[in-house]
Amino acid sequence: MKRLKLYLETSIFGFLVGARQEPYTEATERLFQEIAVGRVQAFISAEVTRELVKAPQPLRVELLRLLRTHPITELESTGEAKELAEKYLEAGIIPKKAEPDALHIAIAVINNLDVVVSWNLQHIVKTRTRLGVNGINKLSGYREIDIATPQEVTAE
Prior knowledge:
The chain is α/β, with parallel strands linked by helices. It has helices at 11-14, 24-36, 46-53, 59-69, 79-90, 99-110, 127-139, 150-153, and strands spanning 5-8, 41-45, 72-75, 115-117, 146-148. It has a single domain (5-153), classed as 3-Layer(aba) Sandwich (Rossmann fold), CATH 3.40.50.
């Protein structure tokens, strides 16, 4: 069976460090266990790293440690991804104030990943977002992408 290629949006990391919030933390821990054993492939972008670096200390140290201790590949944000993100924003799929969220999705699409994994239920993990993003993707010549929470992509 093909290993899923997952884009980890920034919100995922917050549930592994700091205050525990069940069932979010438990599902996120399962996801990172699957990453650690190679059951899934994990990717982030330079945008995720920039957002993690903005976290206050000592939280920042723990967040960045996760990047070193797990097999997570960092992808660059290209002009092509920025153009696709702009299409999501112009169509009102993602609000302009949440521009980084549109960029996360676009980077995953441009890199042919399978799923954007996020706990951002406000702008990213929504049926409206999935439908709108995939409509723009089809019109722009890209394949569809799934958007899900860690609970939806782990084996358990």
